[in-house]
From TrEMBL, chain A:
The keyword Cytoplasm does not apply. It is found in: Cell membrane; Membrane. This is Na+/H+ antiporter subunit D. The keyword Transmembrane helix applies. Residues 127-416 form the NADH:quinone oxidoreductase/Mrp antiporter transmembrane domain. It is a multi-pass membrane protein. It comes from Paenibacillus vini. The chain crosses the membrane at residues 6-24, 31-52, 72-95, 107-126, 132-151, 163-183, 203-228, 240-263, 269-292, 299-320, 326-347, 368-390, 402-426, 447-465. It holds the Pfam family Proton_antipo_M. InterPro entries: CPA3_Na-H_Antiporter_D, NADH_UbQ_OxRdtase, ND/Mrp_TM.
Automatic annotation (TrEMBL), chain B:
InterPro entries: CPA3_antiporter_subunitB (IPR050622), MnhB (IPR007182). PANTHER family: NA(+)/H(+) ANTIPORTER SUBUNIT B, NA(+)_H(+) ANTIPORTER SUBUNIT B. Keywords: Cell membrane, Membrane, Transmembrane, Transmembrane helix. NCBIfam families: PRK12573.1 (NF009223). This is Na(+)/H(+) antiporter subunit B. The keyword Mitochondrion does not apply. Belongs to the CPA3 antiporters (TC 2.A.63) subunit B family. The chain crosses the membrane at residues 7-28, 34-53, 74-94, 114-134. It comes from Paenibacillus vini. Residues 7-130 form the Na+/H+ antiporter MnhB subunit-related protein domain. Pfam families: MnhB. It is found in: Cell membrane. The keyword Oxidoreductase does not apply.
């Protein structure tokens, strides 16, 4: 029993509720929500330490033993993602301080932001399938409101698509839960894993596995990403950044959890199929990233590419592949928030997202330009930046697992990323300076701090990769040995 | 044209009392039998919405001076609060305690911390449900 596990869920929830009561006091909202997120980061650091020393931590809510009650399970994978989530959330929150209008800030922005984080944290920690559904709904409902913040026409149009897509996938999720419950009679993830291992993963269970794959692929943007470029490019920057950094990653997390803990018996069917999805995602995302001349579109398609790439590590089911995925997942959360914030700042300065109309920003904003350059290199995987290790391990994993085509496509996708990011860098930051100081629509005052923070974290991740290696290896080991998870829940 | 809703208003006056009594029964019954904070709160919300429907938003607002958004938030806070109390005592989150007491009129009665939790749930449900109806009606 470890009550610390509930803190990442309860802290933002309590503060969010308190902020609903005081929703007109902006200063109080800012201070309290920052405190809540910082406290969550501190808790996740503590959790990482505890898990590193004592193995997987569990909490049976209300003292009802598994499989009857709801278990909260913190393994290293969840804890690392929790920490990354908190860092990203803090930076996006600071960015929102200056960019969100005062009126919008009073319209429950901070409580919704905190509920979003609550939902994401809860999804990472819960050890119960239905509870996972509830936390998914929690952050989805918050995101429904956040995506329409500002109430522009195209926001409403895209949010309608977003809501429909997610409602349909949630319905499928619920159906999958019902099927799984009627087959096994349990919803506790550890118990599910045990029961399915006992009776074997037959055709019916594999079909249910595919149902879950559809659900989470829709949420993660794995091939089914038709809704993603539209809906991630309409909300205000701070919100778009946290969406890009967190929401697809929760889907990826769920795919990892389900297909390493429960449906891992028939990898030649399920994992092979996920591999095809990943390959298609990378190719299509790459085409989108090089084809568009719109800054936001390019960035959102880069989100899509990385989804395919991270999942490729899972497909291999080798320790190198999974290690790489975890490295790359953490890197990607940080870096996607970073480039979305930089992209949003560029739009804030120039008032347009059309690359052909932006030029020469680096003369007036050298810091911004070089940080973007660093982020771009890191996404491509240039050593010693943070994307490098992930790429190496994922590629090695896919080759070891015999998925040569997948590894090759992953490498080609890196070239797509390189091309699209360099196109962005050369067009937006190089060239003739088009806007003089007076013509710029805004200043970077107050916007640079979160960008610098994220850049520093990303650099630290790359250069200090050795330091977190022991944690990542432990996370990969736990994912590849479901028995560790099961033992922790039932002891 | 002014609507004539004498019948609706007279029925509501009686019906609201019945609905509120029944929802209190549902709420208290929920500890061991079907019922509980969620359904009790929902039927209370039904009574309040009925009041809004028959007497109009302004009139009810004069008499029930309450921000239902805040009510919902307070409800959730109460519910989490009971969960957190168990953390203070070193038990898992949400652990409930109960004991039997000899009360003057009721005799031997079971008092459970789940009741406080349920009160929180009920307030949250009332706040949310009424708030949804009010938001729809305030459509501009």
């Amino acid at each position: 029993m470890n009550n610390l596990l509930i803190a990442p869920v309860v802290l933002p929830l309590i503060i969010g509720m308190v902020l609903i009561i005081f929703h007109t006091n902006i200063k109080l909202q800012r201070v309290l929500s920052l405190i809540a997120l910082l406290a969550t980061s501190a808790v996740s650091v503590l959790l990482i330490n505890q898990i590193h020393q004592q193995g997987i931590q569990t909490l049976q809510l209300g003292g009802w033993e598994a499989p009857y009650g709801i278990s909260f399970v913190g393994d290293m994978f969840s804890a690392l993602l929790l920490l990354a989530t908190s860092i990203v959330a803090v930076c996006c929150l600071i960015y929102a301080f200056t960019t969100m209008g005062r009126k919008q800030q009073k319209l429950y922005f901070y409580p919704l932001f905190l509920f979003l984080v609550t939902g994401v944290n809860g999804s990472f920690l819960t050890g119960d399938l239905f509870n996972l559904y509830v936390f998914f709904e929690l952050f989805l409902v918050s995101s429904y409101v956040l995506i329409t913040f500002g109430g522009e026409k195209r926001q409403l149009r895209e949010s309608l698509k977003y809501i429909f897509t997610n409602i349909i996938s949630s319905a499928f999720f619920l159906m999958g839960v019902a099927y799984l419950y009627s087959i096994t009679g349990t919803l506790n993830l550890a118990d599910l894993s045990l029961k399915i291992a006992e009776v074997g993963q037959d055709g019916l269970i594999t079909t249910v596995a595919f149902l879950f794959l559809i659900v989470f692929a829709l949420k993660a943007g794995l091939l089914l990403f038709f809704w993603l470029p539209g809906s991630y490019s309409v909300p205000p920057t701070a919100i778009a950044a946290i969406f890009a950094a967190l929401l697809t990653k929760v889907g990826i997390y769920a795919i990892f959890r389900m297909f390493t803990l429960i449906f891992y018996h028939e990898p030649q069917i399920t994992h092979w199929f996920i591999g095809i999805l990943a390959a298609l995602t990378m190719i299509l995302g790459g085409l989108g990233a090089i084809g568009f001349w719109d800054l936001k579109k390019i960035l959102t398609y880069n989100v899509v590419i990385s989804v395919g790439f991270i999942v490729a590590g899972l497909v291999s089911l080798t320790s190198a592949g999974i290690t790489g995925s975890i490295y790359y997942l953490i890197h990607d959360m940080i870096i996607k928030a970073l480039i979305f914030l930089i992209g949003g700042t560029v739009i804030h300065l120039t008032g347009t997202s059309d690359l052909k109309e932006i030029s020469g920003l680096i003369r007036r904003h050298p810091g911004l330009g070089w940080m973007f350059f660093l982020a771009a290199l890191s996404m491509v995987g240039i050593p010693p930046l943070s994307g490098f290790l992930g790429k190496v391990f994922i590629t090695r994993g896919t080759f070891e697992g015999g998925y040569f085509w997948l590894g090759a496509i992953g490498l080609v996708a890196s070239l797509f990323i390189l091309y699209s990011m360099m196109k962005l860098f050369m067009n937006a930051f190089w060239g003739e300076m088009k806007l003089s100081e007076e013509e710029e629509l805004g200043t970077t005052k107050g916007l640079i701090l979160p960008i610098v923070l994220l850049t520093v974290v990303s650099l630290a991740l790359g250069i200090g990769a050795e330091g977190i290696a022991c944690y990542v290896t432990q996370a990969a080991e736990e994912l590849l040995n479901p028995s560790l998870y099961i033992q922790a829940v039932f002891d | 044209m002014k609507q004539n809703d004498v019948i609706l208003q007279s029925v509501t006056r009686v019906a609201v009392v019945i609905i509120l009594t029944f929802s209190f029964y549902l709420f208290m019954n929920g500890h061991h039998h079907p019922g509980g904070g969620f359904i009790g709160g929902l039927s209370t919300a039904a009574a309040i919405v009925l009041l809004y429907l028959s007497f109009g938003i302004d009139k009810v607002r004069e008499n029930i001076r309450m921000d239902f958004k805040k009510l919902a938030a307070i409800g959730v806070l109460i519910a989490i609060g009971t969960g957190m109390t168990s953390v203070i005592f070193g038990k898992p989150f949400l652990t409930q305690a109960f004991d039997y007491f000899n009360l003057p009129i009721f005799g031997k009665t079971e008092l459970a911390s789940a009741l406080i939790f349920d009160t929180g749930v009920a307030l949250a449900v009332i706040g949310t449900a009424v708030n949804i109806i009010l938001s729809i009606s305030e459509d501009r």
